[in-house]
Amino acid sequence: MIEFRNLWKNYDDNVVLENLSAQVGSGEFITLVGTSGCGKSTFLKLLLGTEVTSRGSILLDGRPIADEPGPDRGIVFQKYSVFPHLTVRENVALGREFECGPIFGRVFGSARKAILAEADHWLESVGLTPARHRYPHELSGGMQQRLAIAQALIKQPRLLLLDEPFGALDPGIRKDMHQLVLSLWGQHKLTVFMVTHDLSEGFYLGTRLWVFDKCRMDPQAPERFGSTITFDLPVGKTDRQSLDKIKESLARSAQIPVAV
Ligand SMILES: Nc1ncnc2c1ncn2[C@@H]1O[C@H](COP(=O)(O)OP(=O)(O)OP(=O)(O)O)[C@@H](O)[C@H]1O
């Protein structure tokens, strides 16, 4: 479904991604780990279309991916964006309203009713029905992330991009969110790319785990070389040996402990 062909991304002299190539099938769940600053978010932005590649290409179904965000791709960030004066339900509906009324984002009558019904459907699927008339500041952290997921899913994307969506949540809430994401992924046949700092999360959730790291390093000029995929593993929930190997490799690169 997606092919990355000799992808490079640099910002002036800072080479962030270097000669990255991979193929991803429909329905895969890719989890991405790597040290801070290695280019994980940049990679998601390239997929989303808010950044463009410096060299190489990204193909979706064999054609170059549109270099601007479209409804086929939805993203959820750790910090999410909402309109504080709109209710949960109105915030979810807004994405579809902008599609239908792109200039003012306002839709009226039966078209609006249909969109609100769609919003209710997605709110139910993320477990937010009881909170649909609340305002965003009245939600807990976990509920805010559920809202962000509903906002992404109402456009019915094929690709769901998750940039550390649960990084700020308590462990118990995180577990609930894992179950939610796995169930949405299965139900809606999504192809998921998820950045996480938590290697165990990457192992637990993904069907395939990618580690981003530099293959070559110039200590005098750390920005001279970029990251690429250094591990590409099919993962299961019990692969402790690989987990330990990657943990060591990441800790060596970062010279900091890696969360597990
Ligand atoms: N818009 C930009 N302009 C210039 N440099 C940028 C821009 N966006 C990212 N960078 C640089 O690209 C590099 C990779 O950043 P990125 O945010 O992709 O890393 P990351 O792996 O997601 O980090 P973290 O795990 O800390 O979130 C960093 O050196 C960063 O400073």
TrEMBL record:
Transport recorded as keyword: yes
Domain of life: Bacteria
Any single Pfam family the record assigns to this protein: ABC_tran
Keyword rRNA processing on entry: no
SUPFAM superfamilies: P-loop containing nucleoside triphosphate hydrolases
ABC transporter domain residues: 2-239
Keywords per UniProt: ATP-binding, Nucleotide-binding, Transport
One term of GO molecular function: ATP hydrolysis activity
InterPro entries: AAA+_ATPase (IPR003593), ABC_SmlMolc_Importer (IPR050093), ABC_transporter-like_ATP-bd (IPR003439), ABC_transporter-like_CS (IPR017871), P-loop_NTPase (IPR027417)
SMART domains: AAA
PANTHER family, per the entry: BICARBONATE TRANSPORT ATP-BINDING PROTEIN CMPC, SPERMIDINE/PUTRESCINE IMPORT ATP-BINDING PROTEIN POTA
The protein's name: NitT/TauT family transport system ATP-binding protein
Organism annotation: Microbulbifer rhizosphaerae
